[in-house]
Design brief:
Layout: E1 2-8, H1 18-26, E2 34-40, H2 50-60, E3 66-69, H3 79-91, E4 95-98, H4 108-140, E5 154-161, E6 164-171, H5 173-186, H6 193-202, H7 214-222, H8 231-239, E7 243-244, E8 255-260, E9 277-284, H9 289-300, E10 320-322, E11 329-334, E12 339-344, H10 345-350, H11 361-376, E13 386-388, H12 392-413, H13 420-447, E14 452-454, H14 455-463, H15 470-480, E15 481-486, E16 491-495
Helix pairs in contact: 4-13, 6-7, 12-13
Length: 497
């Protein structure tokens, strides 16, 4: 059977649609049966595309003998990926046809021309990527709004800068008052993020309809868009090693600031701001510089509010979740009474979950261990079974991959309504996420070859449980349990076996 493959990363008026691609490819089938594979919203710079991978699977199963594309760069823009794909085509005797370029892969000259074209396809992709990045940083230095979520306290309104239509932020009076309240509370010496959240909840104030969380409070407190930037702010950023685009004379205590990471930075940091690019925004600030500086320096002296992802207080961490809201339960040690408890992370951050109740970590661990032993007794031929042992790192990578793909899909949904500035920002972010996705996939492939644990070895582990190391206990739990939901009254275990 013949396969027609079509791909379109962004639906634009000047690009050929998937429907047009498949229509042109049908002519090449000469009336023979065909199957269509289409990937909408996926880049051609890698092969992480669901329909492409399905097509390759069908080729390996012997269902496909010919692949037709509208143009070479529809199937790949990477020399390495294209070379590997053509080797696999040759292995399964699959003919490759480009409807517009008329390549004949049965001849050496046709293969040579094919490889030359893919080199130029990759060059085009890298040139576009470089041009988008350069344009982004050039526009950001001119105080253009570069997209992203609108900060709380502002709305986005159209404006013109240097004759170019763009957007800027405008304070929303009601939200601006809440921002000033947050800064005022946190500027007090003994006030924490949690204290601010408690006070906002007590007053019935929500963040655009959603409950406040401690990380969102920090986001507001470290964002220079809120400050009325004066020379003290200029001196602060200069002293921390940031790059100031505007001269000191422009810092007159009226406008907020945009802060962008440097070209070489992999991610934006809230503690080390050296190398950040700071430019005055066209919008007015909300908070005076003295209060902003007091809060910003206080934030820099504190640890991140995001809890550590590495389990250390219980071998249940990473597996056990709140039975009320589904968020992770975090094991906390209390030195005063030498007890450990499992606490709902959602309740800790936002206080909008009633929590899982009082869960003593030792009691829950013993209960789960008892359930594991009872579960294994169900298997009479235990020694003949093998259990996959995904380690903690592999589980975290799989979660990270799912979150990355979710963010990519979310960004792609915004493309149709984006202006030029936002589109450039989306393109850069998608490229960054795509690189991260490739890195995660490579690490997953490297870890997926981990050994299987024979079930009799797992059984032996349980008989000597107290002698096992912390990591060994987690490995056994990972092999047997998918997730645990717990409340004060019930514990539900979803098994892998």
């Amino acid at each position: 059977m013949t396969a027609i493959y079509a791909r379109q990363s962004v639906d634009r008026a000047d690009s050929i649609s998937i429907e047009q691609q498949t229509e042109l490819c049908r002519y090449e089938t000469r009336g023979e049966p065909y199957r269509e594979y289409t990937d909408r919203g996926y880049s051609g710079k890698n092969t992480n595309r669901p329909q492409f991978m399905q097509m390759m699977s069908d080729i390996r199963d012997g269902f496909i003998d010919t692949v037709i594309v509208y143009k070479l760069d529809r199937i790949s823009r990477s020399i390495l990926d294209f070379s590997n794909m053509m080797e696999e085509f040759a292995r399964y005797r699959v003919k490759f046809i480009s409807a517009t370029e008329k390549f004949d892969t049965s001849s050496p000259m046709g293969n040579a021309m094919l490889n030359i074209c893919i080199v130029f396809a990759q060059l085009e992709r890298e040139t576009i990527q470089k041009r988008v990045a350069d344009s982004y940083y050039s526009r950001s230095r001119k105080s253009f709004c570069m997209g992203g979520p609108v900060p709380y306290g502002f709305r986005k309104v159209p404006t013109v800068i240097d004759g170019i239509h763009t957007s800027m932020y405008e304070p929303v009076p009601e939200e601006a008052e809440v921002v000033r309240l947050i800064y005022g509370m946190y500027s007090q010496p003994n006030t924490s993020y949690g204290d601010v959240v408690d006070k906002l909840n007590e007053l019935g104030i929500k963040k655009r309809g959603k409950p406040w969380e401690r990380p969102r409070i920090r986001d507001i407190l470290v964002n220079p868009i809120y400050v009325r930037a004066d020379l003290d702010i200029y001196s602060f950023f200069i002293g921390k090693g940031a790059e100031l685009i505007n001269p000191p004379a422009d810092f007159i205590g009226e406008n907020g600031c945009y802060s962008y990471k440097s070209k070489t930075a992999k991610r934006k940091k809230t503690v080390d701001i050296s190398g950040e690019q700071v430019v005055l925004a066209p919008s007015k600030g909300i908070v005076d510089s003295a209060t902003w500086l007091k809060c910003r320096e206080k934030c820099m002296s504190r640890k991140q509010v995001i809890p550590s992802q590495k389990a250390k207080n219980s071998w249940l961490c990473g597996k056990i979740k709140c039975g009320e809201c589904g968020y992770a339960l975090i094991a906390k040690n209390y030195a005063a009474n030498q007890h450990r408890y499992l606490l709902c992370s959602r309740r800790m951050n936002a206080k909008d979950c009633k929590g899982a109740g009082t869960l003593c970590t030792e009691e829950v661990e013993q209960l789960v261990l008892g359930e594991i032993k009872r579960k294994l007794k169900q298997f009479h031929t235990l020694s003949g079974r093998k259990l996959r042992a995904p380690d903690t790192e592999l589980s975290q990578l799989e979660v990270g991959l799912a979150e990355t793909e979710k963010e990519i899909n979310s960004l792609l949904e915004k493309v149709s309504n984006a202006d030029n500035a936002l589109l450039r920002c989306i393109n850069e972010r998608v490229n960054e996420l795509d690189r991260r996705r490739i890195e995660i996939n490579e690490r997953i492939r490297g870890l997926s070859g981990k050994r299987d644990i024979p079930a009799d070895e797992t059984d032996n582990h349980l008989t000597m449980w107290e002698e096992l190391s912390f990591d060994d206990k987690r490995q056994v739990v990972n092999a047997l349990i998918r997730v645990i939901y717990a409340t004060e009254n019930r514990i539900t275990i979803q098994w892998r076996i």
